[in-house]
Specification:
The protein is mostly helical. Helices cover about 75% and strands about 5% of the residues. Helix 3 runs parallel beside helix 7 (about 155-170).
């Protein structure tokens, strides 16, 4: 019984740790002579240094957890595993532990259970299906688009595709999707206007 209870949590901790190691390894890849697989690894390295892919993975994990408690715990363990392995590998490679970065991202990880509950309710509660999905959707959209008074530009096509997949995850009916598209765009503009960080 104990193994049954612990195993799913260990899975997400280990998966986060594995992806953290993989992301740090990708930081060390350099492209030589246009070898296709090294070019691909370099592309993945660029992708995994951006925030979008981590938001996408966490949103997917939280949305499809069986309960909101599991969504909170699984997402927290995923990010803790990822951060610990990423920065321990950094210490191993360079002999320096970036305490400031670890504390900053660690504080974000501490918020992940609350954010995971929001995502779970956005996916699984009909009451909140018109409101809450706009938060992760708007955040992803803000990472993919550059918008101004008279222009709109796609900075990262990968994040824009992730936004489309997230729309499919939260989809209930055409009317709900239309409302979400508008509200997420408004929220994305709000994030760009007030956020001190631009990833």
């Amino acid at each position: 019984m104990i193994k049954y209870n612990i195993a799913p949590y260990s899975l997400w901790l280990c998966m986060g740790a594995a992806l953290g190691l993989f992301a740090k390894y990708l930081d060390t890849v350099s492209v030589l002579d246009d070898i296709w697989w090294m070019v691909f690894l370099s592309y993945l390295g660029d992708l995994f240094t951006r925030l979008g892919v981590w938001i996408f993975l966490a949103t997917f994990l939280a949305a499809y957890s069986h309960t909101q408690m599991k969504a909170a715990v699984h997402t927290f363990l995923f990010f803790i595993g990822m951060l610990i392995s990423y920065y321990l590998y950094t210490l191993y490679l360079y002999g320096v532990f970036p305490t400031g970065y670890f504390m900053f991202w660690g504080s974000i990880a501490l918020l992940s259970p609350l954010l995971a509950v929001i995502v779970w309710r956005a996916k699984n509660s009909r009451t909140f299906s018109l409101i809450l999905p706009a938060l992760p959707l708007g955040l992803m959209l803000s990472l993919s688009l550059g918008a101004g008074l008279f222009y709109l530009d796609i900075h990262y096509i990968e994040e824009f595709f992730m936004f489309i997949v997230l729309c499919a995850i939260f989809y209930r009916n055409p009317k709900q999707l239309a409302i979400l598209m508008i509200s997420s765009f408004v929220f994305a503009l709000f994030i760009d206007a007030v956020s001190p960080f631009h990833f």
